[in-house]
Amino acid sequence: MEERIIVKISELETFVIDVLCNTGLSREDAEITADVLISADRRNIESHGVARLKRYVDGIKTGIINSDARLSIVKETPVSLVVDGNGGMGQAIAYEAMKLCIGKAKKSFMCFASVRNSNHYGIAGYYTMMALKESMIGISLTNSAPLVVPTFGKDATIGTNPISIGFPSKNEKPFLLDMATSTVPRGKLEVYSRKGQSIPDSWACDETGNPTTNAGEVLKNMINRRGGGLLPLGGGTELTSGYKGYGLSAVVDILSGILSSGAAGLDVYGKKGAPAEMCHFLGVINPEAFMGLEEIQGNVDSYIQMLKNSEKAAGQNRIYVAGEKEYEAEEKNKVTVSLQDKVFNTLNDIGREFCLKLSKS
Amino acid sequence: MEERIIVKISELETFVIDVLCNTGLSREDAEITADVLISADRRNIESHGVARLKRYVDGIKTGIINSDARLSIVKETPVSLVVDGNGGMGQAIAYEAMKLCIGKAKKSFMCFASVRNSNHYGIAGYYTMMALKESMIGISLTNSAPLVVPTFGKDATIGTNPISIGFPSKNEKPFLLDMATSTVPRGKLEVYSRKGQSIPDSWACDETGNPTTNAGEVLKNMINRRGGGLLPLGGGTELTSGYKGYGLSAVVDILSGILSSGAAGLDVYGKKGAPAEMCHFLGVINPEAFMGLEEIQGNVDSYIQMLKNSEKAAGQNRIYVAGEKEYEAEEKNKVTVSLQDKVFNTLNDIGREFCLKLSKS
To answer: Is A153's CB within 8 Å of B245's CB?
Structure first.
């Protein structure tokens, strides 16, 4: 039985910031990173929350993440940016790039940034929400480690490459899509494997490239690079349209890693121990480029209501709109969040080196 | 057994143009529409080819499509447009709007148009290809008749809302994604229903909102508006991530129908016999906004090669990249295309009214 530990958000924040500062990150970058991670936990996206702190700390220690790096602007127009992350902390790079996009979109109606040579930036939706807070439309995409097998392939060559896009609303919660382009993330396989449950055949494929229901085998194959991996949204066959998820994943790769002349596909985390070279694509659209904020907000509200008020399937009493579950979790987790005991213990293991301790609430 | 009839493309073109002109479309708009339809047939996307001519002709005759309408510009910035199609022919409206986007993207690095009050515009990819021909990045989205049931719903409230995006290449064929955000289009259900074959359970749901394998029942329910319909990409359960396809479909609706204050969701084809009020979202990005055409083309080539050269699944000898199959079909169908005999006969039925005849090659 998995135990949950309740911690105060304010304490968790201080703890994560202190750990990252002690590891070598500037205080400012540590604050941004802590906010991105804890936002994920508050929104019940635990896979991308403080459970990942160890990976970031290890990344800084081993030099995969260059904690001193600042972004540099490679190319710039009134509506676009090519940004080099110089191997820095993904969250800090993406935050800074998104700030630049917001500034440009205020003046020039929109701005898109293709960002190369960065690192894992946490939840894609965080940066979309930065735009929403400014009453703008936000877009956030990133490539990632190749874990996904393209249609008719047997090796993982593309990432789970998420797509996030958000639109401001008036009385409803903003529309906020944040989805991997694979059917599920690797973490879901781990959960099913631990429980010894079989998985739906649209989740993963075996070492020959055929869909499988055995999560444990897939994970073993992934670790030993024996072939197989996650399947794109739509699954592992042409019949169920797996090529669509594969196509979307490639679009994310191209916008992020190809427009910026960064890394894409197998080149992300291409060399063991070397910088990850992850790439992002961030965008902000000023509603004034179209029918204007107020009108669009009203339209978004009506659209959300239309979806939510439509007839429910047998046994269901609610239709959700993208982002709704996460907003509700965030509201609920205002003062505290609950962590897996394993995660809580790992955090304290990390903190010990710097005489830092995270307490239960 | 289905028979195929070979026709010369030049003759098919003349025939379709003449039919549309006689129905009331200007010669210029008829030429554009014929090119969009025949492009689909050449690319083996028969569902969106000349098989649809009757629907367009009927649309013009019944006034759902206003054959005289020209687009008007509702709002304009250097990088954006809100366009009103005034109920005109979808292909002509979208073609004209895309031309405007290309012109603006040459000057201002990019342009996006949200287009309201239009009609069915054929294959989304046609407009993306217009940008590709100018060595630009193209985007083409459209909402459509509500045939798709959102996750946890039982009624079709959203369209198959396709996403097309294309990137220019150098020696490889351009990358060209063109995909419905439902698992499959309605036409696929018709094919399986005719053959009496059961369908995968990620394609459609019954009148209670539950996934079904009985295509015939779904089609009957759709016609009688008894509930049920197509499922979003990812299928009808949360477990297989159907909410992702649902979310993507909503994004298309919002960009097309909400940013332009047009119709979205149930409001598309909302009133029987009234204009469809379909909405599109078109975009062009100048590669000079990012690393520049030549560099990006080279990067796209390398990326495509990486994907294609990766290991194949057991029993497969080729990995495809988005658009590749369609380009190959287009190459093959340079002089003639083959039509279903049923489609060939319908075309001649339409032509008879205007003393027009389409011959076999």
So the answer is: no
